[in-house]
Structure formats: structure tokens, C-alpha cells
Specification:
CATH architecture of the largest domain: Alpha-Beta Barrel
Number of domains: 3
Largest sheet: 8 strands, mixed
Strand content: 5-15%
Oligomer: single chain
Radius of gyration: 26 Å
Bound molecules: phosphoenolpyruvate, magnesium ion
CATH class of the largest domain: Alpha Beta
Shape: globular
Strand order of the largest sheet: 1-8-7-3-4-5-6-2
Number of helices: 24
């Protein structure tokens, strides 16, 4: 009998294959007492295990392919750094001497203490750092206990094409998976912002997280279908289901290949309106993809990644040089640089606040609020963006605006910087467009006021939906309410577009909704003429645009605004014949 398990899709695509389960038995760690004369020997045993674990991680790092994204290497580097941290190198040694206990027990006590500290943090991102502690300690522990490496940890070409199932994965696992040619993976835990999710997207293989209870229903070597589009795993599929998915998989491949022909085609609708289709970028390896997919520019450059895995924030020159690098690659295409959006789901090390943990970080000091409170953090970035504008078509975009006063303050800071640059004879674009993200209902409702002050607006639906529906976007318990088609969300989008049209300024959308091809026609009907999407989604969206007739869609969208549910919206839009797949 086929069993269907539901999780959260974090990387699209379909995989069919046999399962390999990564089972990390929790070792039974016992305490035993040692004599005073054995203390040095026990400490040496611990030191050797740490050194051995370090060698293992370095070897894994050596396997990282050139083409792999930098964040995978960064995760491994974080684990290597942890192996040098006194919390792991010194504290367990102190415990061995003080308690006269074995190295395993001392390490376990220290792990429990560290995990407790992380678990008590309110901040979702920091809580997930306890996984890093567990992964690193497990590695040392396995060496101490002389356990043999797991099957996927040694080169084994027989794992090629397998689908990995684990409770959670370490960054090292994901590197090895790439090495083995793994087809897909699923984990029982983890949310969309967990390391696993980020890595899956970087590896570009289908993946599902939060597949609770999966190990109860899936056995080693079972044949499964992992549908990374719907976020489901089908265990032991019958002949018909298998045949259906094999066909779907082939169609998917053919479909993606066929999209290649659209790279150079203009995103023009059947009734002759050209839509501005741009790309969202984050990591340096995304920079080239903008041109590869034929995007019209960058509608959202998330700069938080400049602050990742480091102690101090980047200085003005680092910002400036990075922006110049992107401008050079874009070679004349517009670049919309979003100023720092730290806080809530986006926690990084560099520039992080050390103040008390906020009890409700999504509603707290994040994005522009943090920047205005910390001009020392914000000013170098603003200056760098303004200076970079002399070298290409740059636009500056402010995240998470909720109050006109915030716009006034930023504009004032920009003016002061421009005066400074003038006095130093440093050139910049005097007409540098300054825009704002509409991500908070207050901003959408007052979009007319915001539009009066800004040169462009961009709707950030990831946050706009979170704040409209009052659900934490990283909490999988309330994810079912994350509904882009909720009438309240659609009305706020419409209000924003209308406000922009009246003020004669462009309105874009850069949230995930813009890259979901099932919403493209609805958004066109609501009047959206600028989309900024993940590069991987750009051609799919272009295809739908090319097939669309705006006059028809606008008629349909007027009805949609009076729908009472997302399901009704979907049904209405279905009548306009949205594209398959
Ligand atoms: C959004 O909120 O829709 C958005 C694009 O910003 P981010 O996902 O980076 O918060
Ligand atoms: Mg946002």
C-alpha cells in the first residue's frame, strides 16, 4: 500500500529512487571514574579525538566542488572554528580533571550545557545553532568511542541516485551527498530557514524538510517518490503512481530544457505589454545567473549575506567593492541594492546586536529599525551604495518600512552623505532612485503617502503575508495560514499597485509570490508590471507572461478581489487557463 507523508518543500523537483537512511545511533555514554594519574592520559585522548575530527572535516572540505556555493564551505568552516573554540577544547579538559571522569562523559556534560544555553534563546535562528554543537560533538564522540564511519561518510558509488533520509543533516553530510550524486533528500526536522534548507537550495536537488515520523514508515532500500513541488513523499508507490511520476519527471526535465529558448525573448504579453522581469540575488555565485537567465536586472539584492559567518560587519570599502563587482557582471543592467535587513529570521554574526534577546523578534528591532538605531552599522553601507551609483545604474531600497518618519530619516542621512561626498569631490548619481519595500500592512495601507516620498515601491510578500496573517514565517505549526491568496493580502497588493500608479512610480514585487508561476496571471491582472524573482523561476514566469492577455486578466482580477477565500481565487483564476506544470 502506498503511504503519503507530508513535509515542507525547500527545493523543487521530483526524484524517484531507493532510500538510504542515515542513522546516527545515540551512543550510550557512561561515566567512569579515573585516578589522578590517569587524568593526563584522558586529556590526551580527548585532544587526539578533536584533532582527528578536525582532519575529517578538512578532508570533507577538500571534497567541496568548485561549483559548490560558498555557504556550504562556510558551514564547514564554522564547524572547524567550533573545534578550536575553548568551549570544546578547554572546558571538557577542566571537567576531566575536576570530576576525575572519562573524556566522553566530560564532553557530554559540556555539550548538554551548551545546548541548554542555545535552547533557552527565543531567537529561532540562534536556537538552530544548537544543531551545530550537536553535530561537532557527535563527530568527536564517534572518534572517542572508535565507531566506524557511517556508510555515506566514505566514498561509495553505489549510493548514486539514492534518496537520503535523516532526522537532520550536517553540512558535512550535504557535501558528501553531492559527492555521491545523491538524487534528493528528506529530513524529519528543520524548517525553511534551517541550514539544511539553505544547503538544499544551493545544491539544486529536490528536498523536503519537516517530514515528521518519516523513519516510522520508511525502511532502508524502500522505493520512494519525493515530490519537491508539493512537499510529499510517497512510500512504496504502486505501478500506476510510479508510471505517473516517471512521466511527470520526464515532462519536468523537458519543460526546463525547453524554457532555455526564452532566455533572449522579451517578456511581452499577447496584447503587447512588456513586463519588467528581474532577478533576486543573495550570494556571489548568484551574480552570474542574472545574465545567464536573461533577467532585465536585479530587483532585489539581499545584502545580509555580506554579514554572514564573521565577527565584525563589513566596512564601507568592502561594501563598495562588492557592489562594483556585481555592477561589472551586470554590465549596464540595473541593480537594486536592499539595505541591511537583519533581525528575526535573518540572523548573522557580523553586526549582530548583543543586547537582550527580543521576545518577539519579527515584531522587534529588525531591518530599517535596527539600521536607524545603529547609524554606525548603516552609514558605511549607505555611503558605499551612493558611491557605487557612479559606476552603474544603482537603485537603493529600504526594507520593512512602517512609518513615514523612517523614510524622512533615511532621506536625511542620504542627503548628508551626498553633501560630504560633494565636499570630497567624490562622484555619484545625483538622481539615485530611493525606493521602499512594502512588507508591513501599515505601509501597504499608506502606500499613497510612501509613494509621495519614494522613487519606486517593491512588495515583499514573504513579510507582507507574515504580518497580515499574524503568523511567524519560520514556524511550521502555523504555516498552513501562510496564504498569498487570502483576500486581505490581495487587497493590500492592489492598494500598493494603485498608489504607485497614481504617483507615477514603478511598483515591483520581489517576494516569493512573484516567482510562483501559479500566481503570475493573478498578479498581472492586479496590475503588477515588474517582477523580481529567484533566477531559477524567471523563465517559468516569463513563459506565463508571454501566454497572457492582460485585458482578460484584469477583468478576472476585479472579481478576484471580492472572493472570500484563497480557494475561490484559485478557481476563478483557473478559468483564465493558467499554464500547466
Ligand atoms: C519579502 O519579505 O518578501 C522579501 C523579499 O524580503 P525577505 O524575504 O528577504 O525578508
Ligand atoms: Mg522581507
Amino acid at each position: 500500500m502506498t503511504i503519503a507523508l507530508h513535509g515542507m518543500s525547500v527545493s523543487r523537483g521530483i526524484a524517484i529512487g531507493n532510500v538510504h537512511i542515515i542513522e546516527r545511533d545515540q551512543p550510550d555514554i557512561r561515566e567512569y571514574k579515573i585516578s589522578k594519574s590517569q587524568i593526563d592520559t584522558e586529556i590526551r585522548r580527548l585532544e587526539e579525538a578533536i584533532s582527528n575530527a578536525r582532519q575529517q572535516l578538512r578532508a570533507i572540505r577538500g571534497h567541496i566542488k568548485e561549483s559548490t556555493t560558498a555557504d556550504i564551505a562556510a558551514f564547514i568552516d564554522t564547524h572547524l572554528l567550533m573545534l578550536d573554540d575553548i568551549a570544546l577544547t578547554q572546558e571538557p579538559k577542566r571537567l576531566i580533571g575536576e570530576l576525575r571522569c572519562n573524556a566522553e562523559w566530560a564532553l557530554k556534560l559540556q555539550r548538554d550545557a551548551l545546548v541548554n544555553v542555545f535552547e533557552e534563546m527565543d531567537d529561532a535562528y540562534l536556537r538552530t545553532r544548537k544543531d551545530d554543537v550537536n553535530h561537532v560533538v557527535d563527530r568527536i564522540m564517534r572518534v572517542l568511542l572508535k565507531q566506524t564511519p557511517l556508510r555515506h561518510e566514505v566514498p561509495d558509488s553505489r549510493l548514486t541516485g539514492y534518496i537520503m533520509l535523516a532526522d537532520d543533516l550536517t553540512p558535512g553530510d550535504t557535501v558528501l551527498m553531492q559527492h555521491h550524486g545523491i538524487a534528493a533528500f528528506a529530513t524529519e526536522y528543520g524548517g525553511p530557514t534551517s541550514h539544511t534548507a539553505i544547503l538544499a537550495r544551493s545544491l539544486g536537488i529536490p528536498a523536503i524538510v519537516g517530514l515528521h515520523q518519516a523513519s516510522r514508515y520508511i525502511r532502508e532500500e524502500d522505493t520512494i517518490i519525493l515530490d519537491g513541488i508539493l512537499g510529499i513523499v510517497l512510500v512504496d508507490p504502486d505501478k500506476n503512481t510510479l508510471a505517473h511520476y516517471q512521466k511527470k519527471q520526464k515532462e519536468e526535465k523537458r519543460y526546463y530544457l525547453s524554457l532555455g529558448r526564452l532566455k533572449k525573448a522579451p517578456a511581452t504579453t499577447r496584447d503587447g505589454i512588456t513586463i519588467n522581469l528581474q532577478a533576486n540575488i543573495e550570494l556571489p555565485q548568484d551574480f552570474d545567473t542574472v545574465r545567464e537567465v536573461g533577467a532585465g536586472g536585479v530587483g532585489l539584492y539581499r545584502t545580509e549575506f555580506l554579514y554572514m559567518n564573521r565577527q565584525a560587519p563589513p566596512d564601507e570599502e568592502e561594501h563598495f567593492n562588492t557592489y562594483l563587482k556585481v555592477l561589472k557582471i551586470l554590465d549596464g543592467l540595473p541593480l537594486t541594492i536592499r539595505t541591511l535587513d537583519l533581525g528575526a529570521d535573518k540572523q548573522v554574526d557580523g553586526g549582530r546586536q548583543t543586547g537582550p534577546v527580543q521576545s518577539n523578534p519579527a515584531l522587534g528591532l529588525r531591518a530599517i529599525r535596527l539600521c536607524l538605531k545603529e547609524p554606525g552599522l548603516f552609514r558605511p553601507q549607505l555611503r558605499a551604495i551612493i558611491r557605487a551609483s557612479a559606476f552603474g545604474p544603482v537603485r537603493l531600497m529600504i526594507p520593512m518600512l512602517s512609518h513615514l518618519q523612517e523614510i524622512n530619516q533615511v532621506l536625511q542621512m542620504i542627503q548628508t552623505i551626498k553633501t560630504e561626498l560633494d565636499s570630497l569631490n567624490i562622484t555619484y548619481d545625483h538622481n539615485l532612485p530611493v525606493g521602499g519595500m512594502i512588507e508591513v500592512p501599515a505601509a501597504a495601507i499608506c502606500a499613497d503617502m510612501f509613494a509621495g516620498k519614494l522613487d519606486f515601491l517593491s512588495i515583499g510578500t514573504n513579510d507582507l503575508i507574515q504580518y497580515t496573517m499574524a503568523i511567524d514565517r519560520v514556524n511550521d505549526e502555523v504555516n498552513y495560514l501562510y496564504d498569498p491568496l487570502h483576500p486581505a493580502v490581495l487587497r493590500l497588493i492592489r492598494t500598493t499597485i494603485k498608489a504607485g500608479n497614481r504617483a507615477k512610480i514603478p511598483v515591483a514585487m520581489c517576494g516569493e509570490m512573484a516567482g510562483e508561476k501559479r500566481h503570475t496571471q493573478l498578479l498581472l491582472g492586479l496590475g503588477l508590471r515588474e517582477f523580481s524573482v529567484h533566477p531559477a523561476a524567471l523563465l517559468e514566469v516569463k513563459q506565463i507572461i508571454i501566454e497572457s492577455n492582460l485585458a482578460e486578466l484584469e477583468k478576472m482580477a476585479r472579481k478576484v478581489l471580492f472572493s472570500t477565500s484563497g480557494a475561490e481565487v484559485a478557481m476563478l483564476m483557473g478559468k483564465t487557463g493558467p499554464a500547466k506544470n
